[in-house]
Amino acid sequence: LGQLQPELYRPGASEDPAGVTGRGGGGGGDSSGDPPRSNPPPCGRLALALGYWYGSQQLVVRVLRARDLPAKDANGFSDPYVRIYLLPDRKKKYQTKVHRKTLNPDFDETFTFGVPLAELPARRLHFSVYDFDRFSRHDLIGQVVVEDLLEATEKGLEVPVWRDIAEGSG
User: Fold this and answer.
1) Do the record's keywords include Endoplasmic reticulum (predicted)?
2) What is the H or E stretch that residue 163 is in?
3) Is 18 helix (H, G, I), strand (E, B) or coil?
4) What phi and psi, each to the nearest 5 degrees, are found at residue 68?
5) How many other C-beta atoms are found inside a 10 Å radius of the C-beta of residue 92?
6) How far apart are CA 84 and CA 112, in angstroms?
7) Does domain 44-167 match CATH 2.60.40.10?
8) What strands lie across the sheet with 156-164, from one edge to the other?
9) Tens digit of pLDDT for each residue in 40-88?
10) What is the enclosing helix (H) or strand (E) of 151?
């Protein structure tokens, strides 16, 4: 489970020390009168790199590493692995190797999807981070969705991009 943050429970603490309610971009206040909603904390971070090989029309995906994953096993660790789908069709799926007893795995695996350049703007990459369980259903740790693949591939395979892992829902 998550960690307690005592500073959030102090009486009279009118400031938001973690910046939880101040996230987001648009200006202006909320006129609905509802209290501000806080985003759930991330379930760690995932480093990946994307590139595009124009000659063979291949989207190249490198899953580099994950950091600060939550412990899902009784031993205080997880056995993480990542599944990658190219949305919207989900026809082709890839999966990294399972890394045993770690909360900070180094995957460093590369996968390719055959995608014409014209289709890249309409596609999204979906990364699901799981905890491997030998005798029961694998636990979903969280997920990352990368949109606007055309822009995301411009940095190339040598530049890691870090994304927060959003808590999974099933």
Assistant:
1) no
2) strand 156-164
3) coil
4) 60, 40
5) 13
6) 10
7) no
8) 106-114, 58-67, 45-53, 156-164
9) 667 899 999 999 999 999 999 999 999 999 998 888 899 999 999 999 9
10) helix 149-152
Tokens 């480093």: give the residue. Answer: 47
Structure tokens at 62: 């490198």
Q: What is the pLDDT of residues 87-124, one digit of tens each?
A: 998 888 999 999 999 999 999 999 999 999 999 999 99
Q: What is the DSSP letter of 44?
A: -
* Contacting residues for 95 by C-beta, under 8 A, at least 6 apart: 81, 82, 83, 84
Where do we find the tokens 């190219």? 86
At 139-165, the pLDDT tens digits run 999 999 999 898 999 988 999 999 999
Contact 40, 167 (CB under 8 A): yes
E strands within 18-138?
A: 45-53, 58-67, 80-87, 93-95, 106-114, 124-131
Q: Rounded to an integer, what distance in angstroms lies between the CA atom of residue 126 and that of residue 94?
A: 11
